[in-house]
Amino acid sequence: MILPKWRLAFGVNMDYTHDQDYTENNIMSPLRTPHAARIPIITLIIMMLTSAPIAVRADVVDLKPDHPERYTVVKGDTLWDISARFLKSPWHWPKIWKINEQIANPHLIYPGDVVVLRYVDGKPVLSVLRKEKLPLVDVETPPPSDGRTVKLSPRVHSEPLERAVPTIPPDVILPFLSQPLAVGEKELEQAGYITVGLDNRIALGDNSEFYARGLKNDGHEYYQIFRKGDPIKHPDTGELLAYEAIYLGDAQRLISGDPAKLVVTTVKQEILPRDRLMAAPQKPPLPYYYPRAPKKEVNGRIVAALNAVSEIGPYTIVAITLGRREGMEEGNVLRIMRHVGKHKDPVTREYYQLPDEESGLLMVFRVYEKVSYALVMDATHPIHILDVVTTP
Predict the structure, then answer these.
(1) What is the mean pLDDT of residues 324-346?
(2) Could you point out which of 174, 256, 264, 294 has its C-alpha 20 to 30 Å from the C-alpha of 53?
């Protein structure tokens, strides 16, 4: 019996970035050189059985059973919503997204685009078809009846593309992209503070002028006013992670010096002496997040929810005990785990610990040194403070 000659090549994980297309190898291909060593068939089978699952597990992307073959994007869609039509785990969409370099702005999706699901070498691929907006050229009109000669020139009517589809609903997080949410001890010590209003006024409102100290002469004109809130501590270690920053309003510097003179331009809550001042950042553009798992295994907890809700659901903003020092980045997706507790064994009559169960997904949109703020994207069960968040 003559065994067939094969060359064995292990599959490379299919990784997609914006700078390259998919890269993949075939599992096996017929040998084209007569000098290769022969591999016993049993060895070949063992190698296939032991190696193939590794490659498969690395790039498993589960499609929904009722997924469409194509979907036309409409205004109000988000990338998360679109991905959820095709994938069981919407944040996996970057793994199967293929850029069409033949269209403008290939990294973005616009209303009117058609998202198409197809297969390349047996693997699902999502790509976009776009009807580019072509310039409209005037059609030549008949010459005037009086015999005059009229020179016609083509005119191009430009129509800008609509705003690209965001990853998550922009109105949910936009107010929190520039407002202070958390402040560290060092930032708190370096922040300026309100001393008194003009005419010894204590409570400040719209257009109230006041004096402040501790402001640096660094050219900043606009400031955010905030108050130190409750400490954010790690529930397991007791470490102080940050203080909540309660946003009160905005102010504009009128006169530099010590004290400096400012005027209140926006009021969200009552402003009082000892409230702090922080240089206002430039208004950020709406970010287009790239959903992905953290680069390493992380494990943290939910420690706060904005508006102090007891039960947390989709589109709730939460604070977690993971920050820049743990490697968190904007766009990181984490799995939320609920603590099920113990159950009494009906046979032994003893209590045993049940494993934690997944209750949702969140995506980080703002990162501080020791804490991050995230938006709950999906929830299959009510989510609570102190629930665990971990790498999906």
Answers:
(1) 91
(2) 294
